[in-house]
Description:
Elements: H1 2-9, H2 15-25, H3 30-49, H4 58-74, H5 78-82
Helix pairs in contact: 1-3, 1-4, 2-3, 3-4
Amino acid sequence: MYLICKYTVSWQMRATDLAICLSLAGKVVGNEGLSKLCSVTCDYVWDHICGEPDNASASEFFEHMKPILQGWYENTTPEQRSDTN
């Protein structure tokens, strides 16, 4: 979620952003859960942070972020992914 906020709109994710997206996504389990969380986060960023801009859509945010997140996941270890510093 942090990466979506950072790489779509240069937004520093807040604790409230995290809580809202997690509650909207429901239980996050496996690839399907992560995909749902990514989609919900893109919708949230598009709607609540960007104010529904005309030049990009939430689905375009998702299509932009999906390969970035997949590459990051494939090229990092669980220890690296858990480091939030």
